[in-house]
Write a structure and sequence with these properties.
Layout lengths: L7 H4 L8 E4 L9 H10 L4 E4 L10 H6 L3 E6 L6 H8 L4 E4 L2 H12 L4 E4 L6 H4 L3 E4 L5 E4 L5 E4 L2 E7 L3 E12 L4 E2 L8 H7 E12 L18 E4 L2 H5 L20
Parallel strand pairs: 1-2, 1-10, 2-3, 3-4, 10-12, 12-13
Antiparallel strand pairs: 5-9, 6-7, 8-9, 10-11
Helix pairs in contact: 5-7
Length: 260
């Protein structure tokens, strides 16, 4: 049951062109950068990515996006990614934007074997009614729009039907993992990682610290190894290479000012 793979390149070697990927992370936190870089170096393209966002500050999925390797994105946040916006508006990228909570639940449902569920989020909008531009034609027109979804009333409230998400692969990053694939995530880096991991048919985890089976208290496991097929141990340099999205500092107090 030893799931450790020697290198990130070997771990993603069978991710083919056109594969679908669920990718963990939120902003710059908990992003599987090493696995993403390995995909970039392999030249894999035409990918259908499911992730909260598509990278930032030229890191994470932004590496694949800038290289034209992503064909479709299912996510909930574009942010300040100008290349994402350029490709989307230019008709180069198909984008399905959905509410963030719905994205989380669609991933969780897919991993739990639930094909679909009802949610009030999006009722009365184009999320439910259809017509959201999935792909532009490059001239300002809509080449492909979202279809309408089933809406049903329960106890006087309307709900829209959303489908669970399953992907060919999932890429996640954990603070600690053992050789059986049991994972622990650190603080906010937990974000979409467990959800993405359960949604992938083959889940690959890069871990900052690799430990032996039994070293993790069972009560501390955030994701059981049953959901993980491959584990890649990061080098100390890779584990500590973490960018800061926005560094905010306060101006020093004026000379002579008394602070409490």
């Amino acid at each position: 049951m030893d799931k450790v793979v020697a290198t990130a390149g070997a771990a993603v070697a069978d991710v083919a062109d056109g594969a679908s990927l669920a990718v963990g992370g939120f902003g710059l936190s908990g992003v599987p950068n090493v696995l993403i870089q390995a995909l970039y170096e392999r030249g894999t393209g035409g990918l259908a990515v499911v992730s909260n966002n598509c990278g930032a500050m030229e890191s994470g999925l932004a590496v694949l996006l800038a290289a034209g390797r992503i064909a479709r994105v299912t996510g909930s946040y574009i942010g300040a990614n100008k290349e994402f916006a350029r490709q989307y508006l230019g008709g180069e990228l198909e984008v399905e934007m959905i509410p963030q909570g719905t994205l989380a639940e669609r991933l969780r449902a897919g991993g739990a074997g639930i094909p679909a569920f009802y949610t009030p989020a999006g009722v009365g909008t184009q999320v439910a009614d259809g017509g959201l531009p999935w792909r532009y034609d490059g001239s300002g027109g809509v080449a492909l729009a979202s279809p309408p979804k089933e809406v049903r009333e329960f106890d006087g409230t309307q709900y829209v039907l959303e489908r669970g998400i399953r992907t060919d692969f999932a890429l996640v990053r954990a603070a600690k993992g053992d050789r059986h694939g049991n994972l622990v995530f650190a603080k906010s880096s937990r974000n979409f990682n467990p959800l993405a991991a359960t949604a992938g048919r083959v889940t690959i985890a890069e871990v900052e610290e690799l430990v032996e089976p039994g070293a993790i208290d069972p009560d501390a496991v955030h994701l059981p190894g049953i959901f993980v097929q491959r584990v890649v141990a990061l080098t100390p340099e890779q584990a500590t290479d973490k960018k800061i999205e926005r560094r905010t500092i306060s101006a020093p107090p004026a000379r002579g000012t008394v602070t409490s």
